[in-house]
């Protein structure tokens, strides 16, 4: 899972994120520690995790759980990545729906600009709510899905 996370970050964020971060030799170790913690630490037992396979190869990952920034949000998408070769194949929607009920309210953070990802989330009922954060030189916008009605556009 950590390998997919690192590979897809490099595919997705090259030019949006500092190359020194993406090329850091310790990036894979960092993501491995993150994944191990997310899968085994009791603090994260409310998280939902899903993976996507194609011909026995791991091609995508997703994780949701309680919101880290807003306790009023019932659920937050923390991770959703699939290799670029599988964009548009339905893998992303399957992963999203596996970790968050498609009718449930939820929130997520998405790098901006990232028009492909933002369009994907809009298609799945999420809309920007105007909240923005900048961390490590990367701008993220929060998108939310409040009700089933928002998912029927």
TrEMBL record:
Pfam families: Acetyltransf_10 (PF13673). Keywords: Transferase. CDD domains: NAT_SF. The keyword Transferase applies. The keyword Glycoprotein does not apply. Transmembrane segments: none annotated. Coiled coil: none annotated. InterPro entries: Acyl_CoA_acyltransferase, GNAT_dom. One of its GO terms (molecular function) is acyltransferase activity, transferring groups other than amino-acyl groups. PROSITE patterns: GNAT. Residues 1-148 form the N-acetyltransferase domain. This is GNAT family N-acetyltransferase. It comes from Arthrobacter terricola.
